[in-house]
Amino acid sequence: MPTKEDTLIIGGGVIGVCAAYFLAEQGRSVTLIEKNDLTSGSSYGNAGLIAIDHAIPMPAPGVLTQGLRWMLDSSSPFYIKPRLDPDLIRWLWQFRGACKAEKVQRAIPLLLTIGRASLDLYDELHARHALDDGYHRKGRLFLYRTQAGLDHAAEDVDLLHDFGVSGQVLDAAAVRERFPLVKSSVIGGVYYENYAHFVPDRFVRELARVAEGLGARIRTKTEVLGFETSGQRIAKVNTTRGVFEADEVVLAAGVWSPQLARPLGLRLPIQAAKGYSITAKRPSDWPELPVQLADDMVAVTPMAEFVRFSSTLEMAGLDMSINQRRVAASRQAMREYLVNAESLEELELWRGFRPMSPDDFPMIGRSKRFGNLTLATGHSMAGMTQGPITGKLVAQIITGAEPDIELTPFLPERFS
Questions:
Q1: Rounded to whole angstroms, how far apart are CA atoms 190 and 401?
Q2: CA 360 to CA 379: how far, in whole Å?
Q3: In the prediction, which pLDDT does 83 show?
Q4: How far lies 95's CA from each of 62, 146, 175, 269, 380, in Å?
Q5: Which CATH number covers residue 93?
Q6: Of 86, 154, 272, 344, which residue is the least packed, with the fewest Cβ within 10 Å?
Q7: At CA 193, angle to CA 192 and CA 199, rounded to 5?
Q8: Domain identity same for 140 and 91
Q9: Single pTM value for the model
Q10: Phi, then psi, of 263 in degrees rounded to 5
Q11: DSSP-assigned letter for residue 382
């Protein structure tokens, strides 16, 4: 006999769990299903950053040209594996359309709005529930070894200043005062105040615990096999652990969302972008300040008892193999920027997929084809940043409340 719920959420990462929490808080009967375990995807090994101030979208003038050059180097920070994939070609065409100065100008305030709303919710969630996940608001310091990189960063500071963001350009001495572990090769940096960091999988599990306390049910090892529809509604969701019926269905499956949506006749322009992280034991003198090895695009985040180095963007489909050249490039960057990097005790090498949208905006909203399906996916590299506000928006959509943020820029049909 099918299990009947008010709301069924597909996906056990940060987006799905945040949606479960905010719906349960509103008194909805909620079941979340996840094909593996909670945080088995990109919510586990990511950089653990809540990134607000540096709200410049990935598609920007010059990025596609640089990306095409990097395509030839499998160790580059942004690697697109050349292949005849119609979905990738379509995605790149849409990405190209977003790489315009006027679109960047429109994107920045939207990204700042959704990011700031999410940061406020993070503060509220931690104050209300005492989540044990190593949450800190210390800002973030971008480190540069090249004058060209520092000059470009200063241009970003000027651009963001017009939108109310106060970045500070620092010389080498000021950088060393904030983060003493840099080598003399670092010539300067930029500090942004509105960043937070934590242990990402601990946050998701802590919030899941709170959601369960509010009545939400979480079913792991439950894989979606298909959907049964009736008119313009999803009637049943067939899984490896039975059939679910729900008044509302939320698709929050990250990089797996397109293949789940396709049998429903929905084409979601999401490309898998593999990222890597190296987690090491944290030395006792490591500052509580996230930094970015900016010329090499390596994020460095202190996380409780360890420190994580996260890097690269590899668009090679759903290929989980480890590209050792890319890992070696990250380790080389660590040695070039940081003292004693060679002596760090590495604990884990991880890789996972980011669900990249062509315009760097998430897809949040009801499906036009199915009236009881809400999409919450395609968060690119900002899933942790945008998780709480996405979850709250999903709850507002489903309950009919006025959304905290204007949803038009994020509606899934913008790509139709």
A1: 40
A2: 7
A3: 83
A4: 12, 28, 35, 10, 12
A5: 3.30.9.10
A6: 86
A7: 100
A8: yes
A9: 0.96
A10: -60, -20
A11: -
For residue 61, what are its two tokens? 């003038």
Structure tokens at 161: 């200043």
pLDDT over threshold 80, residue 385: yes
- The CATH number linked to 29 is 3.50.50.60
Q: Which of 341, 356, 371 is the last residue of a domain?
A: 356
Residues 6+ apart with CB under 8 A from 155: none
Paired tokens of 399: 């309950």
> What pLDDT, on a 0 to 100 scale, did the predictor assign at position 398?
98
- pLDDT attached to residue 152: 95
The structure tokens 């973030």 sit at: 140
Which residues make Cβ contacts (< 8 Å) with residue 261, sequence separation at least 6?
251, 267, 268, 375
Do 259 and 156 reside in the same domain of the chain?
A: no
Q: Note whether residue 110 is domain-resident.
A: no
Sign of CA dihedral 211, 216, 221, 223: negative
Q: What does the block give as tokens for 359?
A: 């315009």
Largest CA distance in the chain: 68
Residue 287 C-beta-side C-alpha neighbours within 13 Å:
18
Cα–Cα nearest to 107, from 360, 405, 367: 360
Alpha helices in 37-145 (DSSP H): 42-45, 63-70, 86-98, 101-129
Q: Which residues pair with 57 in a beta bridge?
A: none
Distance of alpha carbon 218 from alpha carbon 198, whole angstroms: 23
C-alpha to C-alpha distance for 85 and 90, rounded to whole angstroms: 9
Distances (CA, A) of 215 to 5, 18, 236, 314, 388: 12, 14, 22, 39, 18
Tens digits of residue pLDDT in 41-88: 999 999 999 999 999 999 888 776 776 676 667 667 778 888 889 999
Domain enclosing residue 324, as ranges: 57-98+136-193+270-356
User: Which structure tokens are listed for 266?
Assistant: 């929905």
For the chain, report the end-to-end CA distance as a whole number of angstroms.
37
Instruction: Enumerate residues 6+ apart whose C-beta is below 8 A from 65.
Output: none
Whether residue 80 contacts residue 315, with contact meaning beta carbons closer than 8 Å, is answered with yes
Q: Residue 358 and residue 91: Cα distance in Å, rounded?
A: 6
Radius of gyration of the chain (CA): 21
Angle between helices 200-213 and 14-25 (to 10 degrees): 30
* Rounded mean pLDDT, 141-159: 97
Beta strand pairing call for 242-251 and 3-10: parallel
Same domain membership, residue 376 and residue 275: no
